[in-house]
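REQUEST FORM: STRUCTURE PREDICTION
Request ID: SP-0412
Submitted by: Lab K.M.
Chain count: 1
Length (residues): 524
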Amino acid sequence: MTTRQEIYDRIRESSRDEVILEEMIRLGFWSRDTDKPEDPAEDIRRQGELEREQRRLTQEAARLRNIEALHEEARRKRMEEFRRRRQETKERREQERVQRAAAWQESKQKEIVYLGDSVSTTLNQQTTDEDRLRSNALPNLQSIVEVAEAMEISVGELRWLAFHRRTAEITHYRKFAVPKKTGGVREISAPKPRLKRIQHWILHHILDQVEVHDAAHGFRRDRSIVTNAQQHTSSGVVVNVDIQDFFPTVTFRRIRGVFKSLGYSGQISTVFALLCSEPERREVALDGRTFHVARTERRLPQGAPTSPALTNVICRGLDARLHTLSQKNGFTYTRYADDMTFSASGEATQNVGRVLRQVKHAVSQESFQLHPDKTRIQRASRRQEVTGLTVNSGVSVPRETLRRFRAVLFQIDRDGPGGKRWGASQNVMVSIEGFANFVAMVDPERGAKLQQTVAELQDRHGRGRGTVTVRQRWTFQRPEPVSSPPGPSETAVSNPLQAAASPPGADQSAPKPRKPWWMWWKFW
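STATUS: Completed
RESULT:
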C-alpha cells in the first residue's frame, strides 16, 4: 500500500499529472493502448520533463547570480584537492627520505666517498694491483671495510681519523717544540693514542714490509747511528750533507703515491696518506672557542711513527742514484734520515767537488733540496764525525764528551747527585744510566765499565725522584752569538751532524733536546 508521503515524493520528483496518469494506468482506469488526442500520456510525460528542467535551470540561475559564493566554492574545492595532493606528496617524500637515510647509513658502514676538499679526488678508484701487493708481501686489502676490519675499528672511526678539515675544533696531534742546538725550534707533532695505534698498524703491516735501499740506516731494525758510522771509518775524507726541510717536503700527494706504487687502490691509498699526514696548524680563539687552522698543505709530521719509514720508502730512488754515483767516483754512501754521508780514500778524495755537484743535481731531481749551510768536508788530519760519532780510526764516542761524563760521575760519587746534571733530564741518575747504555752500544768494552760505575752510584744514591721525566713547556731563548771561527777542516760554518747526532746525554750549556732529534719517537 503506497503511503501519502511516498505519493508526495513522487509528485515532487516528476509532476502531479504524471503521477495521476501512472496511478490510473496501474489501477486499470486508463489503457496503455488507448489513443485519446485530447489527453495523451506522452504529452503529460513531456510536460513533466519540461517542468523538471525548468526547476533545475531556475536553481542553477539562482546559484549563478551569487558570484562570490561560486568563487568561494571553487576555491574550497581547489584547496581540498591541494591538501589531498600535498599530503600524498609529503607522505611520499618522507618515505623516500627514510629510504635514502637508511641507504646512506648502510653505505657509511661500507664506503667512504668524501674525506675533505682537495683530497677526495681518487676515492672512486677502487681497483688494487693484487700482483704487486703479493710481490711486496703486503696485506691484500680490497675495500675500506677490509681496511677497517684489519685495523679492528669501524668504518666510521676510520673516516673520523682520516677526515681533512682546513679548520677544525679538534686535532689528532699533540704539538710541542724542542730547541735546536744550532738555534731555533723544531716542532714535534705526536699523534694521540687512537691515531697512534692506527699508524703503528700501518707501520708494522705495510711500511716495515717494504724493502728499502741498503744505504739507509735510519729507523730500521738492526740499524743505528753506529752501523751508519761504521761504513766511513778510517777514510781520507768524509763529506756530510743535509736535506733541507726533510719531513715537510714530503707532501700528501707524495705519500699517497707511495701507497699506490705498492699496489693499493686510489681509495685505500688516500685513506692511508691522510692517516699519515697533517698540515701545520695554528690555534685561533674566537667567541670562546678554539680552532685549529691549517697553514700549509698536508705533509709528514715529525713525531708520527709512520713518518721515518715513509721517508725511507720515498728515498729508495734517491738512495739508488746516490749509491751509483758514489761508486763511480770511488765513494761510500749512507743516509741516516736527512743526513747523507760520503767518504773515500786515496785518489778518490780528489773527486769531492764533482761528487757534491752530482749529489745536488740528483737531490733536486728527486724534489728535495740540500741545506746550503750544512755541508761539511772533513779530512783525515782532523776529527771526522758521522751522526755524532768519531770515525777516524773506528767508531767511538767523542773523547771530550766522555771526559765530561766521567767528571760528572766523579762529582756524584764525591758529593752525591744533588745539584748535578747531565743532559736535559731533570733526573741525573736516570740520565747517566741512559748515556752509559749508549756508550755500551757504541763501544761495549768501555761502556761496560761505565755501566758498572753507574750501577754502583745508583745502589748508593738510588735512581732519583722517579724514572719518568716530566716534559715542561719550553720557552724560546735566543742563543748567544758564537765568535770563534770553524776549524780548517770544515768548509761550512755550521756543523749539522754534530747538531743532529750528538749522543744522548751530552752535557752542554745551550738548550737542546733530551735525545737526538731522530729519536723523537722514543718520547712516547
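NOTES: The domain at 213-250+306-393 is CATH 3.30.70.270 (Alpha-Beta Plaits).
Reviewed by: T.R.
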